[in-house]
Amino acid sequence: MREYLSERATLFNLGSGFSCPDSCERPGCKGVDLHISVTLVDLIALSLSSGKKVSDLFREACKIGFDPLSEEDPWVGRLSLELKKPCPFLQGKYCAHYSGRPLACALFPESFFVLHGPDFLQGKAFFKDFPCAARPCPISPERREILLRLVDMSVKESFLSDFFLFGVSPFLIDLKNLAGEILEGVPLSEEGQARLPHHRIEEILSRRLSQGGYLQAWEEKVGDLDRPGGLGAFAEMKRQTDPISPLRRTDQARFAYQFDEERLRPIRLCR
Question: What's the structural domain count of the chain?
Answer without folding.
Answer: 1
